[in-house]
Amino acid sequence: MLLLLAGFYGGTFLLSLLVRHKKENVDGYMVSSGRVGFGIAAASMTATWIWAASFYAAASSGYTYGLSGAIHYGLWGALMILFIFPFGLRFRQLAPNAHTLGELIHARHGSSSQLILAFSNLLGSAISLMVNFTAAGALVAVLSPLSFTHGVLIAGFGVLSYTLWSGFRASILTDFAQLVCMMAVAVIIIPWILFSLGGPSVLAEGMSRLTAEQADFFSRTAILEQGAPFFVAVLAYAIGNQTIAQRLFAVRQDLIKPTFITATIGYGAVVIGLGMLGLMALLIGVVPADGDLNNIIPQMASGYLPPVLIALFFILVIGSLSSTADSDLSALSAIMMTDVYGKNIAKGRPDPRKMLLLGRITMIVATMIGLILASFSLDILVMLVFVGALWGAIVFPVISSCYWGRVTNTAFTAAVLGGLALFTIARFELLPMDGVIGLLFELIAAVGGGVVLGLMTFAFFGRTAGMAVGVIMTLVLAWYFAGFLGDYTVLLASLTAYGASTIICVALSLMSKEEFDFALIPQRVQRFQKSDSTQAAE
């Protein structure tokens, strides 16, 4: 195990030396050249989206919800990659030289809105680091004599070692190598486990172990407790997560569409397959070690794979969590360098050397925080949905700010804070979710559901179709949710974040008579160093 870990992280570190510059450039450190080619970009996008949760939470979903559970995680995650690219084209059109989405929002609204977005990303990426390090600890603890703590520490310092010097360039280059390994290993391991169990016939015999809901491919329980909350959460991830925005601003503008379509297919194929491992475990009666669903995949690997394939499986999971962890470190450093220091402390006149130093210090501190949080060994699936719901409050304010000139800084700020406040009340049931209060939250959630479906329609079919779908679905969901959704706290809270932020944003924007000139954004968002290096991988 130690040799595998040393080989993986040592090899990745040596690979990162290929893009190391003696005199680092801050723009290259955050978004490479801004002209990254199709192959590297698509691989990096796919590898970043396939993270530890794609293994553990997909398997947990298949084990908990049966036939449809394995599909819910991979399918909705893949579709969210597809749905985001039209908005990504708009972000890139408005601010072709941006490093973070917060930088675009700063040019549109000012510091308060930008810092709200930056803070949500700092929180979300820190939790993402925790999730990936937690997965590493669980994997190492099950497959070796090493402890959970050993696995967490090795993964944390291993990822930091190859990301610290070259930042985003190291992240996308190693993503490419890691994805090639992940896909090759997944194609071998999943069928091998299936036939080690005895083939499809053994799984068919295990159907008797399923409850009625688990055996129903269209299970309402699976949809309301897993499919719908995750569907809502990953849209927020796609809009709010700096790791996604960073790749939008790094890839060549004309390659955004094919990059995201390719990532959609790659992600869906790998993750749905991994979700099937959880379903297989359920059908053959596997009991998670210590009652922890995070142990399902390591148990399946250790029980049904020969030693060589266990080693390959180990590299597969370590590669997936490392590819996302290094992206989180790059995202966190870019946020601190650009949103905190560049735009607020230095007021648009930063010292490039101080920016680089701050970026590297951020990576070190973030790794320490991620390691500390990972020591709590929290449930990965719960954390995933929770963070996605938090980001749900920013989705409508961000997107509307990029299309509608009347959205003001006050509207943006109040919408996000109001959405977060009502989300917190619903998620932790600070007020009883029944009677008049419960009905009010259910109606706000109905607006949130209409917003989610309306935004997706708007992305591909335009404003008129998007508004029509949004209004119609809000009315339909209001009738369906009334007196019912309060029993599904996670979904209620997630949709409340969307609905509340939308209502507040629209109401305050309609009260304003200002009309923003979007031509000002590219003038306000420029590179920090004019002599930007173009030596990055393309």
From TrEMBL:
PROSITE patterns: NA_SOLUT_SYMP_3 (PS50283). This is Sodium:proline symporter. Keywords: Cell membrane, Ion transport, Membrane, Sodium, Sodium transport, Symport, Transmembrane, Transmembrane helix, Transport. Pfam families: SSF. It is found in: Cell membrane. InterPro entries: Na/Glc_symporter_sf, Na/solute_symporter, Sodium:Solute_Symporter. Coiled coil: none annotated. Belongs to the sodium:solute symporter (SSF) (TC 2.A.21) family. Its main location: membrane. It is a multi-pass membrane protein. The chain crosses the membrane at residues 6-22, 34-58, 70-89, 115-142, 148-165, 177-197, 217-239, 260-284, 304-322, 355-374, 380-399, 411-430, 436-458, 465-482, 488-510. It catalyses: L-proline(in) + Na(+)(in) = L-proline(out) + Na(+)(out).
